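Deliverable D5.2: sample structural annotation.
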Amino acid sequence: MKAAVLRDFKTPLTVQDVSVPKPSESEVLIKVEVCGVCHSDLHVADGDWSQLAGIVKRPLILGHEVVGTIVEAGSAVRGINVGDRVGVPWIHYVFDLWVEAWRKKVAKGDVIVVRYADDLVVGFENRAEAERFLKEFRERLAKFGLELHAEKTRLIEFGQFAERNRKRRGEAKPETFTFLGFTHSCGKRRGGGSFIV
C-alpha cells in the first residue's frame, strides 16, 4: 500500500510502498478512504514537541482521523464486521459528551475543560474531584480499548492559590505543564501581585 511516511522530524513526508499491517485479535484493518491530519500530527512532524522525541518511533505514518471500510477483523472483535464502513471521530463521543454529563451530574465545584483535537487539560476546584474524574475517565476510555498516555497524564496543583498553599506546606513552586507546545506556569505579577498563568 502507499503511505506518506515521516522518516524524521522536520523533514518532508515521503510517499512510499509499505507493507499492509496484520491486525491483532482485538484490532481491525481499515481500508482508508479519507484521512485527516490533525494539529497534533503537524506538531509531531515539525518536531515541535521535544518531549516526544524519545517516544515517537520513526518511520511513522501520521493521521488518525479516518473513514474507511473494515477489510479484516481480529478474532476478539465484536460489534463491527468486515465490510462495515467506519469512522474514527472518537473524541466527541468518548470525551466531549461524557465530560459534559460528568460536569453536570457529578462535579460539585468548578470544572474547566480545554481540548484541542485529542489534547486536553481539565481543571478542578478541588483535588478529590480531580482524582475521581481521572479514575472514571480511565474507566471510560477502557470501554473503548483506549488509554491515557502515561507520560502526558498527571495531576498537579495549579492556579491562583497553588503557590501559597505549597509554600505553606513547605513544598516547591507549583509544577508547570506543556499544552499544545506551550509551557504553562502560574505565579504573581511583580508589581501588582495579581495572579497570572
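Annotation notes: Residues 7 and 59 are 4 Å apart (CA to CA). The chain has four helices and twelve strands.
The annotation will be released with the project's public dataset once the embargo ends.
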